[in-house]
Amino acid sequence: MDRSKFIQSSSWIRVLEKRLLSHQFFLRLADAPSLKDALRMLNDTIYQTSISKLEKDTDYEKALSQELLRFYKEMYEISPSNIPIDFTVVKYYYHNLKVMAKEYVKKEDLSHLYVPLGNLDIFGLRKLLQENSSSKNEYLREVKETIRLYEKTKRPSDIDINLDRCYFKSLLKLADEADEDIFYSYVKDTIDFKNIRSLMRANAEGADLEFLTDILIDGGNIYKDNFYNYLNTKIEPDSKLFKYSNIYKYVKQGTEFFGKGRSLSRFELLVDNEMVDLIKNAKKITYGPEVIFAHVIAKEIELRNLRIIFVAKQNGLSSEFIRERLRDTYV
After folding, report:
1. What's the average pLDDT block by block, 10 residues per block, for the chain (331 residues)?
2. If we measure between CA atoms, which residue out of 232, 317, 306, 242 comes closest to residue 274?
3. How far apart are CA 183 and CA 111, in angstroms?
4. φ/ψ (deg, to 5) at 72
5. Those residues with Cβ within 8 angstroms of residue 93's Cβ, 6 or more apart along the chain or in another chain
6. If residue 166 lies in a helix (H) or strand (E), which one and from where to where?
7. What is the distance between the alpha carbons of residues 13 and 19, in angstroms, rounded to a whole number?
8. Nearest to residue 314, comparing CAs of 28, 32, 26, 42?
């Protein structure tokens, strides 16, 4: 990837970074007395426009969705290459493909679940699928393959499992196209996290080797075959399985938390925190695709934090509850 093409866009991103919400700001939001107060505190931020259009406070998801669409449109316009943005947008593509496959096998209209983001014509693909039309589109091929698998096994979980596998193959392909260390680290670390979480889930459910084989993903830093030796055994915080991996300190926290009888949900927070630590390295880079990629990840996590706060405020949950679930921030 020609780094010199990112000189102008990287300079503009540094300006946009000033709009990102800080960790201290999120702590103040967590202490807001109510959902209405939390929304009001965003009046002087980039979210003001979308929030001001809400008919009622509980419609905050509309404001977050509008900001997400606005943000990605801006990023695609700024970046000289789609690749640094596609790394996060592709997860929405596969979310939509899962919806498409499920509505096809259920014979239901699930169009309200689609996220119309990025350059993939999801409704065009949906029409091709419904009409059983032929196409060389890779995404359509993957959906059809997933549907055939479901029709063979009749296991709804196979839809998610197969498309997750396709998703990570797509990410690894993007990393090869980008050919920059940060993108390989992002994909491989994410796969390792997912596989460790899958192993712990399999152990908690007393699953067999066939199940574990089905849900493990190829392509991580930790070889997939290594996981089989830990099936139906307690995963210690200092397990050799991941002790020498990039994500060791995060997985250690997750296994300690799980070992105290708590859920695997902690891993979702730790994955996000590891990604924040990863992209903070981009602050040292003057220009390049990493600068745009880091900004996109930072925005995704910012939106996640806002959603956590709004949902908690709507349900009357405490500030302490919110603080425990807030992700680290880029600024």
Report:
1. 93 96 97 97 95 95 96 97 96 97 94 91 92 89 96 94 96 95 95 94 91 94 94 92 93 85 79 93 93 97 97 96 95 87
2. 242
3. 32
4. -70, -35
5. 118, 120, 122, 139, 170
6. helix 157-178
7. 10
8. 32
Q: Which two tokens stand for residue 39?
A: 């929304």
Tokens of 111: 């169009």
User: Quick check: 227 and 195 in contact, CB under 8 A?
Assistant: yes
Tell me which amino acid residue 14 is: R
The CA distance from 246 to 230, in Å, is 19
Collect all residues with Cβ–Cβ distance below 8 Å to 191 and sequence separation of at least 6.
168, 217, 218, 219, 220, 221
CB 259 within 8 A of CB 149: no
N residues, the chain: 331
Alpha carbon separation from 207 to 93, 151, 203, 230, 322 (Å, rounded)? 30, 23, 6, 12, 33
Name the burial class of residue 18, with classes exposed (0-12), middle (13-18) and buried (19+) by CB atoms within 10 angstroms of its CB.
exposed
Angle subtended at Cα 312 by Cα 307 and Cα 318, rounded to the nearest 5 degrees: 140
How would DSSP label each residue in 182-199? Answer: HHHHHHHHHHHHHHHHHH
Residue position matching structure tokens 């002087």:
44
